[in-house]
């Protein structure tokens, strides 16, 4: 039996468009686009001086657009899940070119999650990346349309020192939409201090809440390398 023409055309298109699961990222380029493999795209970027040389460095998140990574979901959540991988690239600017300083393939989550199809895009739901006084902040926001009432916001603060990017700060805000209790955690890895604030209410005036903040000392024998950060994140101290 002959296959329908539309099916054959779709299959041929998918094969022709399929991208490498592990593309080679060049070490140098004149523009940010030079670091984007064929079939990938930039979905987020921020510029600022990250290595104190007064040049505008750039951090970008790139995403594969391979159609074979779009899968049908028959459960709750989005009907089509985009499971294409995302990479974080940090590019240092010199007089003429950009140099790839850091490449992380496991820290930035995909738009959708096959294990949690109700999870909204953690990157798109958050504020943009930012660079302030040489510190790169990357934000995630977790929110599920079904299966969980939990919501959270995370901020990872990264600084370039000793020839690598390390995690110097971590902030977490989390709550439950059905209860409204709020917990805020802030960790300064440089000072070894952690604060945990509880007692706030999502649905009440904070003036009527008993807010308590507990400070702790934490041991940080070695700062966490950006190269070792993965999603989902497990920052526990």
SSE order and pairing:
Layout: H1 5-17, E1 28-29, E2 40-48, E3 57-64, E4 70-72, E5 80-82, E6 86-93, E7 98-104, E8 130-132, E9 135-143, E10 150-161, E11 164-176, E12 181-188, E13 193-201, E14 212-217
Antiparallel strand pairs: 1-7, 2-3, 3-6, 4-5, 6-7, 8-9, 9-10, 10-11, 11-12, 12-13, 13-14
Description of the structure:
- This protein is mostly beta strands.
- It is built from one helix and 14 strands, in the order H-E-E-E-E-E-E-E-E-E-E-E-E-E-E.
- The strands form three sheets. Strands 8-9-10-11-12-13-14 form a seven-stranded antiparallel β-sheet, with no helix packed on it. Strands 1-7-6-3-2 form a five-stranded antiparallel β-sheet, with no helix packed on it.
- Mean pLDDT is 88; it is low at 1-17.
Task: From the structure above, extract its key features.
5% helix, 7-stranded antiparallel β-sheet, 1 helix, 5-stranded antiparallel β-sheet, mainly beta, 42% strand, 237 residues
Given as residue ranges, the uncertain stretches (5+ residues, pLDDT < 50) are 1-17
| Helix segment tally | 1
> Averaging pLDDT over every residue, what do you get?
88
**Class by alpha and beta content:** mainly beta
Spatial separation of the terminal alpha carbons:
62 Å
Strand order of the largest sheet: 8-9-10-11-12-13-14
Helix content: under 10%
What does the largest sheet look like?
7 strands, antiparallel
General form: flat
Estimated share of beta-strand residues: 35-45%
* Number of distinct beta strands: 14
> H/E element string?
HEEEEEEEEEEEEEE
Please give the radius of gyration in angstroms.
21 Å
């Amino acid at each position: 039996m002959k296959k329908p023409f539309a099916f054959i055309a779709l299959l041929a298109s998918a094969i022709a468009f399929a991208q490498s699961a592990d593309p080679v990222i060049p070490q140098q380029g004149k523009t940010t686009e030079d670091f984007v493999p064929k079939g990938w795209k930039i979905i987020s970027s921020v510029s600022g001086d990250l290595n104190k040389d007064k040049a505008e460095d750039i951090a970008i998140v790139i995403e594969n657009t391979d159609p074979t990574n779009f899968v049908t979901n028959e459960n709750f959540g989005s009907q089509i899940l985009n499971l294409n991988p995302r990479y974080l690239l940090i590019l240092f600017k010199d007089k003429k070119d950009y140099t790839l300083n850091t490449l992380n393939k496991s820290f930035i989550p995909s738009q959708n999650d096959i294990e949690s199809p109700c999870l909204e895009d953690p990157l798109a739901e958050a504020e943009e990346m930012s660079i302030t006084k040489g510190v790169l902040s990357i934000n995630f926001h977790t929110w599920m349309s079904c299966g969980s009432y939990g919501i959270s916001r995370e901020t990872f603060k990264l600084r370039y020192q000793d020839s690598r990017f390390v995690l110097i700060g971590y902030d977490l805000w989390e709550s439950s939409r059905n209860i409204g209790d709020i917990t805020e955690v802030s960790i300064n890895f440089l000072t070894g201090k952690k604060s945990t604030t509880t007692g706030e209410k999502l649905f009440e005036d904070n003036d009527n809440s008993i807010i308590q903040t507990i400070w702790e000392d934490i041991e940080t024998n070695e700062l966490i390398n950006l190269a070792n950060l993965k999603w989902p994140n497990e920052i526990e101290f």
